[in-house]
Amino acid sequence: MNSIVEETKYMMGKYHIKANKSLGQNFLVNEEAINKIIENSQIGKEDLVIEIGPGLGTLTKHLLKKAQKVICIELDKKMVEILENRFSNNQNFELLNQDILKVNLKSLIEEQNKNTRFQKVKIVANLPYYITTPIIMKLLEEEIPLESITIMIQKEVADRLIATPGEKQTGAITYRVYYYAKAQEILEVPNDYFIPKPEVTSKIIKLSIRKEPPVILEDKEKMFKIIKCAFMQRRKTLLNALVNAKIFENKGKGMQILKDLKLDLNIRAEKLSLQDYADIARNS
Ligand code: SAM
Protein backbone atom coordinates (compact mmCIF):
# COMPACT_ATOMS: atom_id res chain seq x y z
CA MET A 1 0.00 0.00 0.00
CA ASN A 2 1.43 3.43 -0.87
CA SER A 3 1.73 6.07 1.83
CA ILE A 4 -1.07 8.28 0.43
CA VAL A 5 -3.47 5.32 0.50
CA GLU A 6 -2.40 4.63 4.09
CA GLU A 7 -2.77 8.27 5.13
CA THR A 8 -6.22 8.53 3.49
CA LYS A 9 -7.46 5.30 5.09
CA TYR A 10 -6.06 6.39 8.44
CA MET A 11 -7.88 9.72 8.30
CA MET A 12 -11.12 8.17 7.11
CA GLY A 13 -10.91 5.77 10.05
CA LYS A 14 -9.93 8.40 12.60
CA TYR A 15 -12.80 10.75 11.65
CA HIS A 16 -15.30 7.98 10.81
CA ILE A 17 -15.58 9.18 7.24
CA LYS A 18 -17.67 7.33 4.72
CA ALA A 19 -17.22 9.03 1.36
CA ASN A 20 -20.39 10.95 0.51
CA LYS A 21 -21.33 10.00 -3.06
CA SER A 22 -23.82 12.80 -3.48
CA LEU A 23 -21.02 15.30 -2.79
CA GLY A 24 -18.76 13.64 -5.37
CA GLN A 25 -16.27 12.49 -2.75
CA ASN A 26 -13.56 10.41 -4.42
CA PHE A 27 -10.27 11.01 -2.68
CA LEU A 28 -7.15 11.07 -4.83
CA VAL A 29 -4.52 8.63 -3.61
CA ASN A 30 -1.99 8.51 -6.45
CA GLU A 31 1.33 10.29 -6.25
CA GLU A 32 1.83 10.72 -10.00
CA ALA A 33 -1.56 12.43 -10.39
CA ILE A 34 -0.97 14.65 -7.35
CA ASN A 35 2.47 15.66 -8.63
CA LYS A 36 1.12 16.42 -12.09
CA ILE A 37 -1.57 18.70 -10.68
CA ILE A 38 0.90 20.55 -8.46
CA GLU A 39 3.65 20.85 -11.11
CA ASN A 40 1.33 22.02 -13.85
CA SER A 41 -0.31 24.64 -11.65
CA GLN A 42 3.10 26.39 -11.69
CA ILE A 43 2.47 28.06 -8.37
CA GLY A 44 4.83 30.86 -7.39
CA LYS A 45 5.64 32.15 -3.90
CA GLU A 46 3.58 35.29 -4.54
CA ASP A 47 0.48 33.55 -5.82
CA LEU A 48 -2.96 33.13 -4.32
CA VAL A 49 -4.39 29.65 -4.84
CA ILE A 50 -8.06 28.84 -4.48
CA GLU A 51 -8.70 25.14 -3.97
CA ILE A 52 -12.24 23.90 -4.62
CA GLY A 53 -13.32 20.85 -2.64
CA PRO A 54 -10.14 20.13 -0.66
CA GLY A 55 -11.71 17.07 1.01
CA LEU A 56 -9.19 15.48 3.38
CA GLY A 57 -6.47 17.91 2.27
CA THR A 58 -4.31 15.70 0.04
CA LEU A 59 -3.63 18.49 -2.49
CA THR A 60 -3.86 21.25 0.13
CA LYS A 61 -0.77 19.95 1.92
CA HIS A 62 1.32 20.54 -1.23
CA LEU A 63 -0.35 23.81 -2.20
CA LEU A 64 0.44 25.34 1.20
CA LYS A 65 4.15 24.74 0.60
CA LYS A 66 4.09 26.51 -2.76
CA ALA A 67 1.73 29.47 -2.53
CA GLN A 68 1.70 32.69 -0.60
CA LYS A 69 -1.86 31.92 0.41
CA VAL A 70 -4.33 29.06 -0.11
CA ILE A 71 -8.06 29.59 0.27
CA CYS A 72 -9.97 26.32 0.45
CA ILE A 73 -13.69 26.21 -0.30
CA GLU A 74 -15.35 23.05 1.03
CA LEU A 75 -19.05 22.33 1.45
CA ASP A 76 -18.88 19.30 3.77
CA LYS A 77 -18.68 20.21 7.49
CA LYS A 78 -16.95 16.91 8.28
CA MET A 79 -14.12 17.74 5.87
CA VAL A 80 -13.93 21.23 7.33
CA GLU A 81 -13.25 19.79 10.79
CA ILE A 82 -10.44 17.62 9.41
CA LEU A 83 -8.92 20.45 7.41
CA GLU A 84 -8.99 22.78 10.44
CA ASN A 85 -7.20 20.15 12.51
CA ARG A 86 -4.60 19.51 9.85
CA PHE A 87 -3.78 22.99 8.63
CA SER A 88 -4.99 25.77 10.93
CA ASN A 89 -1.40 26.23 12.18
CA ASN A 90 -0.35 27.34 8.71
CA GLN A 91 -0.32 31.14 8.42
CA ASN A 92 -1.19 30.97 4.73
CA PHE A 93 -4.27 28.73 5.11
CA GLU A 94 -7.86 29.97 4.98
CA LEU A 95 -10.97 27.83 4.84
CA LEU A 96 -14.51 28.71 3.76
CA ASN A 97 -17.30 26.26 4.55
CA GLN A 98 -19.38 27.19 1.52
CA ASP A 99 -20.86 25.95 -1.73
CA ILE A 100 -18.46 27.02 -4.48
CA LEU A 101 -21.39 27.85 -6.76
CA LYS A 102 -22.58 30.47 -4.25
CA VAL A 103 -19.24 32.13 -3.55
CA ASN A 104 -18.62 35.54 -5.08
CA LEU A 105 -15.05 34.84 -6.18
CA LYS A 106 -14.55 38.26 -7.72
CA SER A 107 -15.14 40.10 -4.46
CA LEU A 108 -13.28 37.42 -2.49
CA ILE A 109 -10.18 38.08 -4.60
CA GLU A 110 -10.63 41.86 -4.49
CA GLU A 111 -10.81 41.64 -0.70
CA GLN A 112 -7.65 39.52 -0.55
CA ASN A 113 -5.77 41.91 -2.83
CA LYS A 114 -6.47 44.81 -0.46
CA ASN A 115 -4.11 43.34 2.12
CA THR A 116 -1.55 41.67 -0.13
CA ARG A 117 -0.97 42.24 -3.84
CA PHE A 118 -0.89 38.72 -5.17
CA GLN A 119 1.02 38.18 -8.35
CA LYS A 120 -1.42 35.71 -9.83
CA VAL A 121 -4.57 33.88 -8.80
CA LYS A 122 -4.80 30.19 -9.67
CA ILE A 123 -7.53 27.61 -9.21
CA VAL A 124 -6.55 24.06 -8.36
CA ALA A 125 -9.03 21.25 -7.75
CA ASN A 126 -10.04 17.66 -7.96
CA LEU A 127 -13.58 18.74 -8.72
CA PRO A 128 -16.80 17.16 -7.45
CA TYR A 129 -17.99 15.62 -10.73
CA TYR A 130 -21.71 16.20 -10.22
CA ILE A 131 -21.18 19.95 -10.78
CA THR A 132 -18.13 20.03 -13.07
CA THR A 133 -19.67 22.09 -15.86
CA PRO A 134 -21.39 24.76 -13.72
CA ILE A 135 -18.16 25.27 -11.77
CA ILE A 136 -16.04 25.64 -14.91
CA MET A 137 -18.51 28.01 -16.54
CA LYS A 138 -18.68 30.08 -13.34
CA LEU A 139 -14.89 30.35 -13.24
CA LEU A 140 -14.72 31.38 -16.89
CA GLU A 141 -17.71 33.67 -17.21
CA GLU A 142 -17.68 35.72 -14.03
CA GLU A 143 -14.72 37.81 -15.19
CA ILE A 144 -12.60 36.71 -12.28
CA PRO A 145 -8.95 37.77 -12.62
CA LEU A 146 -7.55 34.24 -12.93
CA GLU A 147 -4.30 33.09 -14.46
CA SER A 148 -5.11 29.39 -14.74
CA ILE A 149 -7.40 26.56 -13.68
CA THR A 150 -5.80 23.14 -13.14
CA ILE A 151 -8.45 20.52 -12.49
CA MET A 152 -9.28 16.84 -12.42
CA ILE A 153 -12.58 16.13 -14.14
CA GLN A 154 -14.28 13.17 -15.81
CA LYS A 155 -12.65 12.15 -19.12
CA GLU A 156 -15.75 12.66 -21.28
CA VAL A 157 -16.11 16.26 -20.15
CA ALA A 158 -12.37 16.86 -20.48
CA ASP A 159 -12.42 15.57 -24.06
CA ARG A 160 -15.17 18.02 -24.96
CA LEU A 161 -13.38 20.94 -23.36
CA ILE A 162 -10.04 20.29 -25.06
CA ALA A 163 -11.44 19.27 -28.49
CA THR A 164 -10.52 21.35 -31.49
CA PRO A 165 -13.31 22.25 -33.95
CA GLY A 166 -13.83 19.47 -36.46
CA GLU A 167 -13.32 16.63 -34.00
CA LYS A 168 -16.16 14.31 -33.02
CA GLN A 169 -16.03 15.42 -29.37
CA THR A 170 -16.57 19.07 -30.27
CA GLY A 171 -19.66 20.53 -28.59
CA ALA A 172 -21.07 23.99 -27.91
CA ILE A 173 -19.05 24.11 -24.69
CA THR A 174 -15.79 23.57 -26.63
CA TYR A 175 -16.22 27.01 -28.21
CA ARG A 176 -17.24 28.66 -24.96
CA VAL A 177 -14.13 27.38 -23.22
CA TYR A 178 -11.92 28.24 -26.21
CA TYR A 179 -13.21 31.83 -26.10
CA TYR A 180 -11.97 32.26 -22.54
CA ALA A 181 -8.98 29.93 -22.26
CA LYS A 182 -6.39 27.72 -23.90
CA ALA A 183 -7.09 24.17 -22.81
CA GLN A 184 -4.44 21.51 -22.44
CA GLU A 185 -4.56 17.87 -21.43
CA ILE A 186 -2.15 16.90 -18.67
CA LEU A 187 -2.85 13.27 -17.74
CA GLU A 188 -5.44 10.53 -18.08
CA VAL A 189 -6.21 9.08 -14.66
CA PRO A 190 -7.71 5.60 -14.16
CA ASN A 191 -10.43 5.12 -11.56
CA ASP A 192 -8.22 3.08 -9.21
CA TYR A 193 -6.24 6.24 -8.37
CA PHE A 194 -9.10 7.19 -6.01
CA ILE A 195 -10.78 5.96 -2.83
CA PRO A 196 -13.55 5.08 -3.42
CA LYS A 197 -13.21 4.37 -7.15
CA PRO A 198 -15.45 6.58 -9.30
CA GLU A 199 -17.33 4.85 -12.12
CA VAL A 200 -15.54 6.89 -14.77
CA THR A 201 -12.02 7.52 -16.01
CA SER A 202 -10.70 11.01 -15.27
CA LYS A 203 -8.36 13.54 -16.82
CA ILE A 204 -6.28 16.36 -15.45
CA ILE A 205 -6.53 19.43 -17.65
CA LYS A 206 -5.21 22.97 -17.45
CA LEU A 207 -7.07 26.04 -18.68
CA SER A 208 -4.80 29.05 -19.17
CA ILE A 209 -6.99 32.13 -19.20
CA ARG A 210 -6.59 34.35 -22.25
CA LYS A 211 -5.62 37.98 -21.73
CA GLU A 212 -7.54 38.92 -24.89
CA PRO A 213 -10.42 37.02 -26.51
CA PRO A 214 -9.48 35.21 -29.75
CA VAL A 215 -12.32 36.90 -31.67
CA ILE A 216 -13.49 40.45 -31.26
CA LEU A 217 -17.22 41.16 -31.54
CA GLU A 218 -19.73 43.45 -29.89
CA ASP A 219 -22.20 40.83 -28.79
CA LYS A 220 -20.54 37.60 -27.68
CA GLU A 221 -23.80 36.29 -26.21
CA LYS A 222 -25.35 36.39 -29.67
CA MET A 223 -22.46 34.26 -30.97
CA PHE A 224 -22.85 31.76 -28.10
CA LYS A 225 -26.61 31.57 -28.79
CA ILE A 226 -25.89 30.75 -32.44
CA ILE A 227 -23.41 28.05 -31.40
CA LYS A 228 -25.93 26.57 -28.97
CA CYS A 229 -28.65 26.48 -31.64
CA ALA A 230 -26.24 24.92 -34.16
CA PHE A 231 -25.33 22.10 -31.75
CA MET A 232 -28.89 21.47 -30.57
CA GLN A 233 -29.51 20.06 -34.05
CA ARG A 234 -26.02 18.89 -34.84
CA ARG A 235 -27.16 16.11 -37.18
CA LYS A 236 -28.68 18.71 -39.50
CA THR A 237 -26.66 21.03 -41.69
CA LEU A 238 -25.76 24.30 -40.02
CA LEU A 239 -27.98 26.09 -42.53
CA ASN A 240 -31.09 24.08 -41.62
CA ALA A 241 -30.36 24.21 -37.90
CA LEU A 242 -30.05 27.98 -37.94
CA VAL A 243 -33.13 28.46 -40.14
CA ASN A 244 -35.15 26.24 -37.76
CA ALA A 245 -33.86 28.21 -34.78
CA LYS A 246 -34.82 31.47 -36.56
CA ILE A 247 -31.25 32.75 -36.40
CA PHE A 248 -31.45 33.06 -40.18
CA GLU A 249 -34.69 34.79 -41.27
CA ASN A 250 -35.16 32.26 -44.06
CA LYS A 251 -33.18 29.72 -46.08
CA GLY A 252 -32.33 32.20 -48.86
CA LYS A 253 -30.85 34.72 -46.44
CA GLY A 254 -28.98 31.96 -44.62
CA MET A 255 -27.49 30.69 -47.89
CA GLN A 256 -26.37 34.19 -48.79
CA ILE A 257 -24.66 34.68 -45.41
CA LEU A 258 -22.81 31.36 -45.71
CA LYS A 259 -21.80 32.12 -49.31
CA ASP A 260 -20.51 35.59 -48.37
CA LEU A 261 -18.41 33.96 -45.64
CA LYS A 262 -17.19 31.31 -48.12
CA LEU A 263 -18.67 28.50 -46.03
CA ASP A 264 -19.96 25.28 -47.62
CA LEU A 265 -23.78 25.27 -47.69
CA ASN A 266 -23.77 21.70 -46.30
CA ILE A 267 -21.32 22.41 -43.47
CA ARG A 268 -22.16 20.99 -40.01
CA ALA A 269 -21.90 22.68 -36.64
CA GLU A 270 -18.66 21.06 -35.46
CA LYS A 271 -16.70 21.99 -38.60
CA LEU A 272 -16.77 25.73 -38.02
CA SER A 273 -14.08 27.71 -36.26
CA LEU A 274 -14.92 30.22 -33.53
CA GLN A 275 -14.06 32.94 -36.06
CA ASP A 276 -16.71 31.50 -38.43
CA TYR A 277 -19.33 31.74 -35.68
CA ALA A 278 -18.22 35.28 -34.85
CA ASP A 279 -18.63 36.20 -38.54
CA ILE A 280 -22.10 34.66 -38.67
CA ALA A 281 -23.08 36.59 -35.51
CA ARG A 282 -21.86 39.82 -37.08
CA ASN A 283 -23.72 39.19 -40.34
CA SER A 284 -27.05 37.70 -39.20
N1 SAM B 1 -9.47 17.37 -3.07
C1 SAM B 1 -9.78 16.09 -2.49
C2 SAM B 1 -8.93 15.02 -3.14
O1 SAM B 1 -8.37 15.29 -4.21
O2 SAM B 1 -8.84 13.93 -2.60
C3 SAM B 1 -11.26 15.75 -2.58
C4 SAM B 1 -11.84 15.79 -3.97
S1 SAM B 1 -13.50 15.17 -4.09
C5 SAM B 1 -13.49 14.64 -5.78
C6 SAM B 1 -14.54 16.62 -4.21
C7 SAM B 1 -14.63 17.48 -2.96
O3 SAM B 1 -15.53 18.58 -3.24
C8 SAM B 1 -15.21 16.79 -1.74
O4 SAM B 1 -14.42 17.07 -0.61
C9 SAM B 1 -16.62 17.40 -1.56
O5 SAM B 1 -17.07 17.43 -0.22
C10 SAM B 1 -16.39 18.80 -2.12
N2 SAM B 1 -17.61 19.45 -2.62
C11 SAM B 1 -18.70 18.86 -3.17
N3 SAM B 1 -19.59 19.79 -3.55
C12 SAM B 1 -19.05 21.00 -3.26
C13 SAM B 1 -19.51 22.34 -3.42
N4 SAM B 1 -20.69 22.62 -3.98
N5 SAM B 1 -18.72 23.36 -2.99
C14 SAM B 1 -17.50 23.08 -2.41
N6 SAM B 1 -17.03 21.82 -2.24
C15 SAM B 1 -17.79 20.79 -2.65
Features:
Rossmann fold, 7-stranded mixed β-sheet, 284 residues, single chain, Helicase, Ruva Protein, domain 3, alpha/beta, two-stranded antiparallel sheet, 12 helices, elongated, 2 domains, binds S-adenosylmethionine
Summarize the structure.
This protein has 284 residues and is of the alpha/beta class. The protein is built from 12 helices and 9 strands.
Walk me through this protein's architecture.
This protein has two domains: 3-209, Vaccinia Virus protein VP39 (Rossmann fold); 220-283, Orthogonal Bundle (Helicase, Ruva Protein, domain 3). 43% of the residues lie in helices and 17% in strands. The chain is built from twelve helices and nine strands. It has helices spanning 3-14, 31-41, 58-66, 77-87, 105-115, 132-141, 155-162, 172-180, 220-232, 238-244, 251-260, 274-283; strands at 27-28, 48-52, 69-73, 93-96, 121-126, 148-154, 181-189, 194-195, 202-209. It has a seven-stranded mixed beta sheet, with helices on both faces. A two-stranded antiparallel sheet has the order 1-8. α8 (172-180) packs antiparallel against α9. The radius of gyration is 21 Å and the shape is elongated. It starts with a helix and ends with a helix. The mean pLDDT is 96. S-adenosylmethionine binds at residues 23-28, 52-56, 58-59, 73-76, 79, 99-101, 126, 128, 131.
